[in-house]
Structure formats: C-alpha cells, structure tokens
Amino acid sequence: xxxxxxxxxxxxxxxxxxxxxxxxxxxxxxxxxxxxxxxxxxxxxxxxxxxxxxxxxxxxxxxxxxxxxxxxxxxxxxxxxxxxxxxxxxxxxxxxxxxxxxxxxxxxxxxxxxxxxxxxxxxxxxxxxxxxxxxxxxxxxxxxxxxxxxxxxxxxxxxxxxxxxxxxxxxxxxxxxxxxxxxxxxxxxxxxxxxxxxxxxxxxxxxxxxxxx
Length: 213
Description:
The protein folds into 2 domains: about 1-45 and about 55-135, no CATH class; about 140-205, CATH 2.40.50.140. It is α+β, with helices and mostly antiparallel strands. About 50% of the residues lie in helices and about 15% in strands. It contains 4 helices and 5 strands, in the order H-H-H-H-E-E-E-E-E. Helix 3 (about 55-100) packs antiparallel against helix 4 (about 105-135). Residues about 35-75 have low confidence and may be disordered.
C-alpha cells in the first residue's frame, strides 16, 4: 500500500486525500442525521389553513418569520449534503480515473459527471424523505385546549418550547406565551391556539385546576 501510494503522481495523491476527507465529512453528516442531532428534534407539523382562530399582526409576523427560518435552514442543510455528495464522488472518480491512466482533463470531466449524479441523487432523496415526513406528521391543531409543560423557558415576547400531546403523541413544539409573559421550564400550561405550522400559544394553569373536557 505504501509503495502504491509513493508511485502515485502528486495530483492523484491530492485527489485521493480530498476524496477521503469529504467522505469522512459526508459519513459524519449521515450518522448525525440517523441519531437525531443536527435539528432532528425540531418537528414540523401540518395545520389546516381554515383554522378557526384569529391572528393578530404580531402573531402572523412571528409565525411567518419562524416558518421562513425553518425553510431556509432546511434548504441550507439539503444544499450542504448535496454539495458534500458532489465533492465526494467527484474526487473519488477523478482520482481513480487518473490513477488508471486517464488524462487529467478527462479524469476531471468524468469526476464532474459522477459528482453531478451524486448531487442530484442526494437532493432528490432528501426532498422525498422530507415530504414523507411532513405527510406523516401529526396535526398540531389537535393539541389546542389540552395541557402540557414548558420544556424550554419561554422568554417575554419570545419563543420557547412546550411538551404537549399532538394527535396522541407526546411532542416538543415551539411555544409563545399569551400576553408576552415569561414562563419558566416545568410550568404547567394550556394550549390556546396555533400560531403557525410549528408554534402554539400557551397560558399558565394551576395544577389543581380541573382540565376542561
């Protein structure tokens, strides 16, 4: 192996080195996705557009900003993985073709085609997986009127996280307080309404207060 490496041209060694580097990053990204790091805990929920609640201008602006941020984050994540796939396949293909005696120009050309194929395959696969996840997500609207618990502090006029039951599944969703008051983690709350596909409005409740049917 050492002798084979020593006999390679410097540019081929560089191609192989880059291929191994990007392969490691791509594999790390894949493992992170599988174990739920890198944003997997943020759940997207589908909501009927004919919701029977009224939105004030502040709620609409906050919900729109949150949704836009989620969409941008998802697009960036997809782009990063697709680019990593391109670079990984590009360098492997270019290195192997050049190592086999192909001229540099053609090795780069073949590598580009392999990279573009990987880019498109990953982009399509991630889009399909995202659509399937969105289709299977429970409806956030089903938790309106139910009780939950603040999971991450809700700052005054800010967004935290609440642990509520959505379509029979205990889930963590983004939450804002009614009146813009701060609510500490662990505080019992009631969901008043939805503010967007991923956010609800909550109010504090007394633990001894009977839950409305």
